[in-house]
Design goal:
CATH architecture of chain C: Orthogonal Bundle
Radius of gyration of chain C: 20 Å
Shape of chain B: globular
Helix content of chain C: over 70%
Shape of chain C: globular
Order of helices and strands of chain B: HEHEHEHEEHEHEHEHEEHEEHEEHE
Radius of gyration of chain B: 21 Å
CATH topology of chain C: ABC transporter involved in vitamin B12 uptake, BtuC
Oligomer: heterotrimer
Distance between the termini of chain B: 56 Å
Low-confidence stretches of chain C: none
Number of strands of chain C: 0
Number of domains of chain C: 1
Mean pLDDT of chain C: 90
Largest sheet of chain C: none
Strand content of chain B: 15-25%
Number of helices of chain C: 13
Order of helices and strands of chain C: HHHHHHHHHHHHH
Distance between the termini of chain C: 62 Å
Low-confidence stretches of chain B: 1-26
Strand order of the largest sheet of chain B: 12-10-9-8-6-7-15
Largest interface: A-C, 50 and 50 residues
Chains: A mainly alpha (355), B alpha/beta (361), C mainly alpha (308)
Chain lengths: 355, 361, 308
């Protein structure tokens, strides 16, 4: 028995919503089975990873904090991916955005005022854009593959961070440890909900997703991006410049990643440390795909990923599920979600092998 | 199990007399303590995390499983991820939470502020709070012993020190090692290689190769795991040392001795004080004398006179006659940093950013 | 610099380069068939842990290498099924494969941490492997010679065999290859399995020839460097060999320079560490200045193929 894929004329709306839910359920069932076979308490593992973060209201703030950068970066990436522009170096743009914001914070450390945070935000976005400038330039002028250049520059960004933290930016008051000074109170994001750890990053993430949705569905730009991505020839006839689209989508992706970097360093971190690169840029790629490259989808995908991170920690602390098992669990869910994608875009026809 | 005999009552009375200003909660005796340990890696790294987990197990053995219950969280990234874990543990009703990495500090201080009834213990930290203590070990004292062995045993007179990043603890480990080696061999040179990675065994092994190829015949490392030691074994040089734990299984011939981190005395003390209701904010920095830094068994190939000299340094540190950083100390740029008769004291320790004369870094 | 030290540097450099060479050779074949598998790091970790476990249990490194190859190929089949049969996005699936490999290797490797094995070193008599000059040819693990053989074998396969021509055709123009009657998906399945096996062997180099132990995260991100290397080499096996040794040399020289002390230290180590990546970008630019990009990068790289 073989099967064959046939492209649907329109992506199935029903499947678009059904498959992520299906995949999560399948992960729960399979996960429980696999972990029981491995000698863990499979049912509890699934409960702690998937349900506790949703049921336990104390965990909601953690979800918000963890999901915000994933959503912001994911939204930026999804716009590019729609146009077939493959920026996979968001991690680097996130780091440089955080560094640029830190630079501004250190320069203005003796100052105060409401304008410090917006300035840092602009610096963060500009930093991310600067880091994606070279890949955009090379792609448009020389047709150099942006998948590779953006990835390479991510590693350079990590080295840049180390150079600054161990060198010129090292705090004189932290016992020689590699970290900057703490930002001053006007350089730290305000808490939005009293008594929680939810800072301005979370509502901004939601706002960005909604804004992106409106732009992508209502504006000429959104139409241009989608046309260049799905029908490049039509785009050319329609007078849309491919190069202009590449520039715009890469810069938007870089700016959002860099901005997310600023929100992180001015939010939960409050200073720059060597541990700042936490893989958000890479995880956001997965978030973008789970969200079907749709801003609202990305919003939900970011929350789902955050649930598995937060739930994974709960499972570690309550039932002693090893950290590695949590990683396995996440990978399984991603595989199933990606597999489910096929139902959205294709009809599966079972065919008998021709002899 | 409540054990309310007179001796305990007296102890509580004593604590109350000492700490008149701390709220009543501090005096609540507990039948059972729920303790949590947050690790940056996994306990099977044969180094830093292994040491802390061993300390935890010995603490349970000493206090009894009916009196203490533990949770271990591994591979917790520093930064906001750790903040979440600390809050999660506090919410689950843990009484005391040990965070065993420097980078957890900001998160622990934040969460400690939100959970005033939960005690926090920050390893290698530098800032305390009413419910947050810090603890560290004087690893550099062990380095003095290793340096003594190296200075006496090295034939080329060149030793090596492989570190991750130049943080003060590593810098001072290098200085302690080197100063001790120079006492035995005034021309001793210590070559320092930083691998610029928190964890990369293959790179550590290659660093060891690079050092051995350039005349080093004794290696010490400030990174977790036996990578450098295994290269020492493979190349047949005079040897190397275990770091954090005994690593002789990895290099039976090259493993001269080891610095073993023993955290159980501190863990027992901290949890016991909580059981007794007299935990208080503090800063602990014990070394060889306190039993937190232990020199492992010596390899049989270490000559008797070297063992004797090493033991003399070890005992000298315990009775105070040997100080790892006794002057005069000149740095490797020729500047006199510590006058004869002076020492680098605990306060100055963390500000040292220079290497002693003869260190090539 | 004297001869002894030069020889020593060469030997260390070759060791450091060999896992990169294996993994990158495998990825080169995968990319030539038009598939971009970003899961190299995950497959290397899988190979490293399985290679260690089998060598430790059996005492036979050859069995370990074979098992590492099988393990790498097996996990790569998850990627192949998702991206080929279900035409899932290759970038996302590759990243998921890396997460999977990291989790799997950590979990599977738990019982094997803290256990030593013997290094799988030179099998030549000491007269050769310890000779002051000849050791530059003989003081290597059999894995090193095997990697060199594979460079040649893959070059020969891609350039001189009909099967290699088909594989390249599939990577350049999948629909034409399909219409002539070749099984695009079949070829790509084969290429991915081969790439997985090579990444697995590359991973097994870590416990077998570099640092004879297993510990979580042992490969330290080399899978990503291997990806860079393929591009650096402009998808050519010969250049890949040169590139792998150049990357290995940069990493090795950093350590030798630090150990030597003195003037070398003027270069910040962060710059050393950035060099392979910056060099790769420069090579990409040079390629595209000299040719059209299509003459080096496989035209169908990263695009799913759906037979009509």
């Amino acid at each position: 028995m073989q099967f064959r894929l046939e492209k649907k004329l329109q992506p199935s709306k029903k499947m678009l919503f059904a498959t992520p839910v299906l995949a999560v359920f399948l992960t729960m069932i399979l996960g429980a089975m696999v972990f029981t076979t491995l000698g863990f308490d499979g049912l509890s593992a699934v409960r702690e990873i998937f349900l506790t973060p949703i049921i336990n209201s104390l965990k909601w703030q953690d979800l918000a904090v963890k999901a915000a950068p994933l959503i912001i970066i994911g939204v930026g990436l999804s716009i590019g991916y729609r146009a077939n522009v493959w920026n996979i170096g968001a991690e680097g743009q996130y780091i440089v955005g955080g560094l640029a914001a830190t630079g501004v914070a250190l320069l203005t450390h003796d100052l105060s005022g409401w304008w410090l945070l917006p300035l840092m935000g602009i610096a963060g976005a500009l930093g991310g854009m600067a880091w994606v400038f070279v890949p955009a330039f090379l792609r448009t002028k020389l047709k150099v593959n942006e998948i590779l250049t953006t990835l390479m520059l991510t590693y350079v960004a990590v080295q840049l961070l180390n150079f600054l933290i161990f060198g010129p930016w090292k705090s004189p008051t932290s016992y020689g440890q590699p970290q900057t000074v703490l930002f001053n109170s006007d350089q730290i994001l305000p808490y939005i909900i009293p008594g929680t750890i939810v800072q301005a990053g979370a509502p901004i993430a939601v706002l960005i997703a909604i804004l992106a949705w409106i732009i992508m569905s209502r504006s000429v730009f959104g139409f241009q991006v989608k046309t260049v991505g799905s029908a490049p020839n039509a785009a050319r006839y329609g007078g849309f410049s491919e190069n202009k689209t590449i520039w715009l989508t890469l810069l938007i992706g870089g700016a959002l990643a860099g901005f997310a970097g600023m929100l992180e360093v001015a939010g939960p971190f409050n200073r720059m440390v060597p541990q700042f690169p936490s893989g958000y840029g890479f995880t956001a790629i997965i978030v973008a795909f789970l969200g079907r490259l749709h801003p609202i989808g990305v919003l939900f995908a970011g929350i789902v990923l955050a649930i598995t991170f937060v739930g994974g920690e709960v499972a570690q602390t309550t039932i002693g599920l090893p950290n590695a098992a949590v990683g396995l669990f996440q990978a399984m869910m991603l595989f199933l979600l990606l597999a489910g994608d096929v139902l959205v875009r294709y009809n599966i026809k079972i065919v008998r092998a021709k002899r | 199990m409540t054990n309310f005999n007179r001796r305990n009552v007296l102890k509580i009375g004593g604590a109350a007399a000492m700490l008149p200003l701390i709220g009543t909660k501090a005096f609540a005796k507990k039948d059972k303590v729920k303790a949590a340990f947050v690790l940056i890696g996994t306990p099977d790294d044969n180094g830093w995390n292994y040491g802390h987990d061993l300390g935890r197990q010995e603490m349970i053995a000493a206090l009894g499983a009916d009196r203490v219950e533990t949770t271990v969280v591994t591979n917790v990234a520093e930064g906001p991820d750790s903040e979440r874990v600390f809050r999660e543990l506090a919410q689950q009703g843990h009484d005391i939470i040990f965070g065993t990495s420097f980078g957890y500090g900001d998160s622990m201080l934040k969460v400690a502020g939100q959970f005033p009834d939960v005690k926090f213990e920050w390893a290698t930290g530098y800032k305390t709070a009413p419910n947050l203590s810090i603890y560290n070990a004087r690893f550099h004292e062990g380095r003095s012993v290793l340096g003594t062995i190296s200075g006496m045993m090295s034939e080329t007179g060149i030793g090596a020190y492989i570190g991750s990043f130049p943080i003060p603890e590593v810098v001072m480990g290098i200085n302690a090692f080197h100063l001790a080696a120079r006492k035995a061999n005034p021309d001793f040179i210590t070559k320092v290689v930083y691998v610029d990675s928190w964890f990369d065994p293959a790179k550590e092994a290659d660093a060891a190769r690079a050092l051995i190829d350039q005349g080093v015949d004794i290696i010490t490392q400030h990174t977790d795991g036996p990578a450098a030691l295994q290269v020492a074994e493979e190349r047949g040089i005079i040897g190397g040392f275990g770091q954090g734990a005994d690593m002789s299984a990895f290099a039976p011939k090259a493993h001269l001795t080891s610095i073993i981190d023993i955290w159980s005395p501190y863990y027992i003390k901290a949890v016991k004080s909580l059981l007794d209701g007299n935990w208080k904010e503090g800063s602990s920095w014990e070394g060889i004398a306190g039993g937190e830094v232990v020199i492992g068994p010596y390899n049989e190939k270490v000559p008797a006179d070297v063992v004797a000299a090493a033991e003399a340094v070890r005992l000298g540190i315990i009775d105070g006659s040997y100080h790892p950083f006794a002057g005069p100390i000149t740095d490797n740029k020729g500047e006199l940093r510590v006058e004869a008769g002076d020492i680098i004291d605990d306060g100055e320790f963390w500000a040292v950013d220079w290497y002693a004369e003869g260190v090539e870094a | 610099m004297n001869v002894d030290l030069t020889i020593a540097i060469i030997i260390t450099m070759v060791g450091a380069s060999t896992p990169l060479l294996f993994a990158a050779l495998g990825e080169l074949v995968v990319e030539k068939s038009g598939v971009l598998n970003l899961g190299v790091e995950g497959m290397m970790l899988t190979g490293a842990v399985v290679g260690f476990a089998v060598t430790y249990t059996s005492g036979n490194p050859w069995l370990g290498i074979g098992a590492a190859a099988i393990a790498g190929a097996s996990v790569s089949m998850i990627f192949a099924f998702l991206t080929l049969s279900l035409s899932a996005n290759q970038v996302a699936t590759g990243l998921a494969l890396t997460i999977f490999g990291a989790g799997f290797s950590a979990l599977f490797g738990k019982p094997f941490t803290g256990k030593p094995i013997d290094i799988f070193g030179s099998v030549f008599p000491p007269a050769l492997s310890e000779h002051p000059y000849l050791r530059v040819f003989f003081d290597y693990s059999p894995l090193v010679y095997f990697s060199l053989f594979m460079v040649f074998a893959i070059w020969w396969f891609l350039q001189k065999t009909r099967a290699g021509l088909i594989l390249r055709a599939v990577g350049e123009n999948d629909h034409s290859a399909h219409s002539i009657g070749y099984s695009v998906l079949g070829v790509r399945y084969g290429a991915i399995a081969f790439g997985g096996a090579m990444a697995g062997i590359g991973g097994s180099c870590f416990p077998l020839i570099l640092t004879p132990q297993w510990v979580e995260g042992l490969t330290g991100g080399r899978g990503w460097i291997a990806l860079a290397l393929v591009v650096f080499a402009a998808w050519r096996p010969g250049r890949l060999l040169a590139g792998a040794y150049l990357f290995g040399l940069i990493a090795t020289m950093e350590l030798y320079a630090k150990a030597a002390g003195g003037a070398f230290r003027i270069i910040p180590s962060e710059l050393w560490a950035s060099l392979p990546y910056l060099a790769t970008i420069i090579v990409l630019v040079l390629i595209s200045l000299r040719h059209k990009i299509s003459s080096s990068a496989p035209a169908c790289l990263g695009k799913p193929f759906i037979p009509n």
